[in-house]
Design goal:
97 residues, alpha+beta, two-stranded antiparallel sheet, 4 helices
Length: 97
């Protein structure tokens, strides 16, 4: 399945192998990030004040929007944790919509 472009911040339009277009929810969610940050004592304020994250990037994380792998790598290093403690991948068929 080919992801064509984000739509409305929460879903995307994708093209399946047989050429059918469909709407699907975002496949990566950052719900684990907020629990990990709380456990490690890192606040959103600290991310943009001391670690150079923009407010736009934090907004994207809060709303499960696309961020770069560089951003995810930076979060893993700041929090001294593995990627699964920052984000979760959901296959299209795992997402209820």
């Amino acid at each position: 399945m080919e992801l064509l472009y984000p739509y409305n911040g929460t879903v995307a339009i994708s093209k399946t192998a047989n050429g059918i277009y469909k709407f699907c929810e975002k496949m990566i969610k950052y719900d684990n990030l907020w629990n990990t940050m709380k456990e490690k004592g890192i606040s959103e304020y600290r991310l943009y004040t001391y670690h150079g994250f923009s407010r736009q990037t934090i907004y994207k994380l809060r709303h499960n929007e696309l961020v770069s792998l560089h951003t995810i790598n930076k979060l893993c290093n700041i929090l001294d944790t593995e990627i699964e403690n920052v984000c979760t991948f959901y296959k299209d068929e795992d997402i209820k919509g």
